[in-house]
Amino acid sequence: VFSLFVWQGSGKQETKFNFADFFDLEELGKEHLSIVSMEDFLRKEALGGRFMYKNTSQVAFPPQNRTNFDGDDNYRPDTPLNKYLRGISNTPDWRDSECIAVFPAHEGNTDAMNTLFREAMQRGLPNVPQMERNPLPVNASSKERMREALLRRKLCVYDEEMQGTPLVHFRVEEAKRIRLLVHFYAFLFFEDWRHD
Q: What is the pTM of this model?
């Protein structure tokens, strides 16, 4: 599910955009990604009773059993759709300025990632000018690649709990500075460099 961009324009032009306004999602879906619209997702998954509210474990259907929320101001955190998604999903509080998203190579490798983090921090942060002149090779050790990626940030690990949930929702909340709209290489870290 992709985020909506809102721009405060002069009132004479379009101010709401989504990724389809910038990217040919249909073509990307044919070749590289499995892309489904929010309406299709809600119709196939949510109306099928696949999700439960986290706090009650009761089956959770979309607000008023709607599947089409086009035209609603869904960029705001308090809309019925956003409240619903947050009530049924694992909703990590990840901020790209505070952490790097770490994807272990194998299930159950969360402890190994935390050990790698401690070891990388013990070596200290790399010298940025030296790093720019002599970047690490793509297949450098996980410890060296993590050390280079951290830049004073902590780890946000895609852990066993997240892997076991049917839905992970990366919310957008401007007031809390939560928005994962950043270059993948500045935020994502894959333990196995071949997954990158």
A: 0.75
